[in-house]
């Protein structure tokens, strides 16, 4: 598996993002979905990662949005056929590595209360619950988490 920073505006990546959007729409109402659109994912402050298999097929995405001493994880998605192989853990570790390389101390995220696999992944990786941050408002369908990257050197 190869994980690299790529332009999210590629057709195969857009398809993956659409799959993630559809799952989010299935689980949560629009006002509880906080998905970054393609143009925002192409900003210089966003490190958008794509995982591809040996044949070059895009199977997963994840992004770090740099905000100074903190960053936000966005657009974590693994295609259903690629799940169960540790790919989300590998991508998360790569995102943490990139955040550290850019001087980030606090890595934050928002996910949904019914996104059980994501919640488990983040908890196992050392993320803890916190209050809403940045422009987020309290939402009973959202879980806000953060990890202090200064506390350890590996994901």
TrEMBL record:
Residues 3-150 form the N-acetyltransferase domain. Keywords: Acyltransferase, Transferase. SUPFAM superfamilies: Acyl-CoA N-acyltransferases (Nat). GO terms for molecular function: acyltransferase activity, transferring groups other than amino-acyl groups. The keyword Acyltransferase applies. The keyword Cell membrane does not apply. Gene3D superfamilies: 3.40.630.30. PANTHER family: AMINOALKYLPHOSPHONATE N-ACETYLTRANSFERASE-RELATED (PTHR43877:SF2), AMINOALKYLPHOSPHONATE N-ACETYLTRANSFERASE-RELATED-RELATED (PTHR43877). This is Putative acetyltransferase. It comes from Paraburkholderia phenazinium.
């Amino acid at each position: 598996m190869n994980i690299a920073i790529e332009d999210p505006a590629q057709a195969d990546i857009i398809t993956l993002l659409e799959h993630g959007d559809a799952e989010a729409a299935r689980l949560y109402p629009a006002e509880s979905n906080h998905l970054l659109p393609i143009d925002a994912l192409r900003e210089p402050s966003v490190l958008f990662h794509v995982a591809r298999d040996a044949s070059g097929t895009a199977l997963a995405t994840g992004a770090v949005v740099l905000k100074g001493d903190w960053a936000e994880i966005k657009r974590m998605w693994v295609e259903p056929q690629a799940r169960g192989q540790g790919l989300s853990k590998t991508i998360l570790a790569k995102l943490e590595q990139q955040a550290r390389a850019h001087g980030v101390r606090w890595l934050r995220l928002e996910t949904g209360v019914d996104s059980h696999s994501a919640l488990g992944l983040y908890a196992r990786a050392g993320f803890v619950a916190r209050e809403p941050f940045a422009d987020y408002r309290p939402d009973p369908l959202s879980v806000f988490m953060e990890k202090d990257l200064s506390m350890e050197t590996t994901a």
